[in-house]
């Protein structure tokens, strides 16, 4: 690990000022600290967000749930507000990593990192959420750019994410047993505007599947999902699974998601 300086601001404004000056924000540290230990990252200065109380919390605003960036995975999973309004999101949070990871990891940290196999990006994209920063608001469809890359500008901090409440939603995770990341994760949400299907773990970045969305909007049944061909040409292939295998898992997990939602 390289040497670094450490700052612990207690307000969003102070944290943003430090980040703008080149400090590296740290939330739960689940990704940044391991990379620092391996000397893959040399931030120079860490800006610890854990003392910024205003960045954590869960509240309902009209037909949406707003979750602070520093809210822990376990708090999302256990929140009565989230469980009632968006049980698919609570269920997703309940199965991230292990208990230790859920007790430390944060929503904002996961979304800002945009790991190709992380779970939260699929919920943000699948629910059509809005990422709120200290500078602006970014629609989910514009936020995830590529592998570990987002629309965040240098020094820009996520403060909260606003999740519209869907008619119903669910997350189906086929996990890699050692890492507990998603080998393939499928988030399905029924909304007034139609069905959204977001997939993580299968490509270099979370993505929506237009074919599945069109088929399920027209006819919300497992058979409709099964009839959609999943193109493996742009999916990941690695030592854990081939691209063709991931394509098959996307189809199966989507069918299972639809069946589970129809069963209530």
Automatic annotation (TrEMBL):
<dbReference type="InterPro" id="IPR016167">
    <property type="entry name" value="FAD-bd_PCMH_sub1"/>
</dbReference>
<keyword id="KW-0274">FAD</keyword>
<dbReference type="InterPro" id="IPR016169">
    <property type="entry name" value="FAD-bd_PCMH_sub2"/>
</dbReference>
<dbReference type="InterPro" id="IPR051312">
    <property type="entry name" value="Diverse_Substr_Oxidored"/>
</dbReference>
<dbReference type="InterPro" id="IPR005107">
    <property type="entry name" value="CO_DH_flav_C"/>
</dbReference>
<dbReference type="InterPro" id="IPR002346">
    <property type="entry name" value="Mopterin_DH_FAD-bd"/>
</dbReference>
<dbReference type="Pfam" id="PF00941">
    <property type="entry name" value="FAD_binding_5"/>
</dbReference>
<feature type="domain" description="FAD-binding PCMH-type">
    <location>
        <begin position="1"/>
        <end position="168"/>
    </location>
</feature>
<dbReference type="InterPro" id="IPR036318">
    <property type="entry name" value="FAD-bd_PCMH-like_sf"/>
</dbReference>
<keyword id="KW-0560">Oxidoreductase</keyword>
<keyword id="KW-0285">Flavoprotein</keyword>
<dbReference type="InterPro" id="IPR016166">
    <property type="entry name" value="FAD-bd_PCMH"/>
</dbReference>
<dbReference type="InterPro" id="IPR036683">
    <property type="entry name" value="CO_DH_flav_C_dom_sf"/>
</dbReference>
<protein>
    <submittedName>
        <fullName>Xanthine dehydrogenase family protein subunit M</fullName>
    </submittedName>
</protein>
